């Protein structure tokens, strides 16, 4: 008789939109993980969990500290509101657990720094921030191809995150906590820039930001202005050593979610999702040819989230390096915050090669 | 405390290419199913099962009759060689089990008939033949749209099954058991015709075949001729009441698997996979723009197979009708066999409205 | 001072839909041609010509025989009703003129034969039947690529001609003269099969038909039945030496004109217009992504018609072989007529290698 | 007998790459124009003209002033080197001629201003700067659709001009006269932004620039740096009243020319050329699916240039307003120059609502 499979005992914290999905993924779609517990302070979410998780043997907690004490618990997936990401991650690390944390670690750099320091003090535990696109098969195929050198040196990266317009205006109130459109939406695109621009070193050396600039408008939701936010943003990030990334984010894409990326190298370009579609169906009607696109981020990236759960689980069980380094996840926040600042103060922002903001181009240049 | 989830105890018979996949799906990707056992007479497959199934608590059998006696077993998924499909299905039904059988039931009509009769004698058990495309999200979206009437009456259906060329010539020897290209490959396309052409009656009334004709060539594998088979086939099926389906199958598609279908109605057309691709990546290189397509049937339809397992499981657990009727699955074989006959004898073959072959067009017409 | 350019003095016969377009092409878009005259017996067309042709120096005739005597006339483009194609072509040849004749030469084989015989008696004059798709840049690119051998031997050809539905029902009455859907629409697809399947010999050896079969329905226009015609047709043509072409034609495509072709070789496939569009615009709206396709045959093939005029003109001026051989154009009619016969009598039709119809498969086989 | 057609007697100045094309268009593809003369000081171009233009009755000049005195000359198309655009245009206007001038009017604003002033003093003469994309059928379809309001208010415009990499490095030396990549390449994209962002007023009110910023790298041609230029540029232009345009230009696109534009409105998006292709052919080979794209700007926009010639000719003959206003063409230069400045001095540049540069964001803001 073969030895039974060892499974990772994991809990999910937060059972909102993304938390419930993570719970499902660990419960049903990550064979080597066993979802043993879940935490939520929200009664509506507790009711959902009683119906959908408890019958599968998952214990429900309404106190995060109690969750951490769940017997045999090895890891936790933090998927609460953004402001709780860092505190829960830190507590979980200190409780000896491995952590998969939803992005961003925090919208504040100093707090990101605390997470990194805590993780550094517990080097045996795996801590990863979940940038889902890195697990999407099309992005992985692009990265794999970039590594072969077929497109030469990645030099320009264009990436966008465009959400379907939500007429409920939910995202307006959400803007006061989200860190703004560049931190909330474009952070994925920023992470892609860091990923592809560090491909030369296989991820060991992150590109260094030289300057950032951002612009935005409130085309449909003027109330965003009160939180220093916009519903359409354009940003450019210039890196030292000749690389540029430029981004677009929008809250008003009518047909659905359209996230796309171009990685432009000295010998070729990789294009991910230039031609969006939700499947392989096209309708030829008297009004022309029609196709649908994904309606939301999850519809586009569902399989990437599942893959993320699997790879995190494998990294823990096999004591391997997690696929995304925390330093890079913090750098993404730093760039997102700088873009949001540039949007708000209408200035181009400069950095020296050590990552410190400098006031003028002259100062930055002196460092060259 | 909530009531624990009830899971369907299922076994898989056959652990070859497709059997191993079915085992994985029931083991890891069908939350409400529990893979409790597996059967294979093949020592190589047994070794695989010891490594990949046994550690998850799956009992391995090398005797099919023993498998059927596995305690608590409720259902079996038959995924052995084609010639064993029907005998195992019949045995399993008679042992009181629900059965999901890989397509085709058999390459012989009389044997299909036996399966149907056996199933009819056990009306409380679910028996379904697995036509995977009916569970593919793009085909489901097309069917759903056809039901709304947006394309009017489905009138013409074009469908193709094109495999990547396998230079090993594996499929040549396989041809002696497969029933031929129309029974082995185009049976999926035939099933789609039956599905869409019975949409008007929500599947209750199958369209009646009036005539069939088939053509073929052995472009790359002349040895296929010894089994009355070809590597490229073209067939047309004419139905009474003004509907036509035409098919193409090929064993020599260089880039990979390209299965596509058009459902042409009086008001519009639905096209599934006219523009094949394996993901959302395109490469812009000095040689032009490139994309890849799926390399095999499973790469194209993996999610459909998983969905098939889930829906079969749900149908059993909730005592619902299975999504595909056995009558239709047998009719697909009948049409496939007739096409293969037409290929071999180079004649157009006619049927009367009762489904009997008639020798001449005159005879068929007299029945109108 | 350079020698002035010599221009071909040409006339257009017939100023209906296509005739007026040909007149425009020779007048304005064929630099080396000079449209000197035009003929039409129709008063409405005469009025159009007075406004659109006469101011450019084009003489208008209402008597075809007078047209032929126009001083200095060298060539005529015959674009009248189908029944006049052959008589006018013959007269023009006998009057010493070069002739570009719209397809088909005739819907009757015996009459096609007369044209060929007349042309053979005047070997110095150029006579060409205008199969426009051979001048379309995408088809030319496909043919050029086929000639390189990159797809191996062209083995299967699929081609369709689908017109936008015309609710006026114009095409119903037109059916009594058109020769039927296979002669009127699919003749283009048949011509493509002859073109690609003779690529091996650079057009010198046409493939030999072994059998044909056709099917059809009257989905929207039952009145077509009185002319032995249908609004949707499916046909298969089997050639000796292992090549098959299969066709679809429709009068009811809602979004517009969708003509497409696949040339499937032993090493690859060339696909022309699998992904139809009228330009490069897509609209992303709340109802999904939309694009338009050409509304009619001319919108799709306008540039091909212009190129046809240019190449015919060049062939005459430079005394070169015309790009399309008359034998091939007559063969296309023969196949189209056989398909239409098969549609009407519901039989598969066989030919021996000399192109004679034989009654049974046995007879055809005996010739092998 | 109808009155003969009146044709516009036009000359082309400059017979380099674009000049020769313009000459061809007016000679052979603009029915109502008559190319009567051409000027070039270059002996190689003179030889070309003797062979290709003179036989059609075109008189060749090697002195521009002599050209202007050609009897009966009504208009001139200026297609010389950029530095000669403005002087020749001014001379031609003063000689009483209508002028179609290649873009840009000049790379210097003061000189553009002289052209506008000269044109203003001769209000009866038509003067237009040829921004070819405005005549491309896909862009025209997009603009037409934008006018209907279907995408709401155009708010964000993304546009790129990417040339196929020319390993000869021709464009390096050319950079010293071109005004830089933003003036030479992105000027088309800037013009599109002005066009679409003034659609609300049907072109009467141009959007007002608030700030611009640009970035660039020399990925393949470091020598460009000596002319303050780059081979990849990213620029953003912010307009007062809530509109943003962002641009990308590249000299290193391997497969060919890829110019594309997205016009993003509050209710939808129009995308032009997201899915580039040179025609309707795709090749399905063992290496995947392949397609080609246009190899250069002319291959992409040939028909637009022809349409430009036709519309200019019609505007003159019918004394209508030319389709592109000179003010807008000068504004495009102003923005291009500002972007190039921003690239060179690494600063974000601000404008007040009167179009004057202001030093700081504060100053610009004070004007709000």
UniProtKB/TrEMBL annotation, chains A, B, C, D:
Belongs to the Gfo/Idh/MocA family. One of its GO terms (cellular component) is cytoplasm. One of its GO terms (biological process) is NADPH regeneration. Transmembrane segments: none annotated. The lineage of its organism: Eukaryota, Fungi, Dikarya, Ascomycota, Pezizomycotina. Residues 8-130 form the Gfo/Idh/MocA-like oxidoreductase N-terminal domain. Pfam families: GFO_IDH_MocA, GFO_IDH_MocA_C3. One of its GO terms (molecular function) is oxidoreductase activity. This is NAD(P)-binding protein. PANTHER family: BINDING ROSSMANN FOLD OXIDOREDUCTASE, PUTATIVE (AFU_ORTHOLOGUE AFUA_2G10240)-RELATED, NAD(P)-BINDING ROSSMANN-FOLD SUPERFAMILY PROTEIN-RELATED. Residues 148-270 form the GFO/IDH/MocA-like oxidoreductase domain. Keywords: Oxidoreductase.
